[in-house]
Write a structure and sequence with these properties.
The chain is mainly alpha-helical and 99 residues long. The chain folds into 2 domains: 67 residues, no CATH class; 32 residues. It is built from 6 helices and no strands. Helix 2 crosses helix 4. It is elongated, with a radius of gyration of 17 Å. It starts with a helix and ends with a helix. The mean pLDDT is 82.
Length: 99
């Protein structure tokens, strides 16, 4: 079970790190899952994850502020609206554009 949790933790951490670059992929939930998996499987990996700048920026601020700050919400919604706007111009179907 220990190795399964370590593998899942590495997968979730990898997805979380990719989520920093990809706008619609959430980062915080995957890093939280990775922290849970590492805390139950490996002290070494848990220490590594907790001491990364990414963990501090996303997970600790999420726990400390009890959610996303206004600045993070604004960044998230801005990137979401930009991607939705781009997709509206790419799609040729009028009904989808109206929706």
């Amino acid at each position: 079970m220990k190795y399964v949790l370590m593998t899942l933790g590495l997968i979730f951490a990898g997805i979380g790190f990719v989520g920093i670059v990809v706008p619609l992929l959430p980062t915080t939930p995957f890093l939280l899952l990775a922290a849970i998996c590492f805390s139950r499987s490996s002290k070494k990996f848990n220490h590594w994850l907790v001491n990364t700048k990414i963990h501090d920026e996303y997970v600790e601020s999420f726990k400390r502020d009890k959610g996303f700050t206004l600045k993070k919400k604004f960044k998230l919604l801005t990137s979401l609206y930009i991607l939705m706007g781009i997709s509206i111009f790419i799609i040729d179907n009028l009904y989808i554009r109206i929706t």
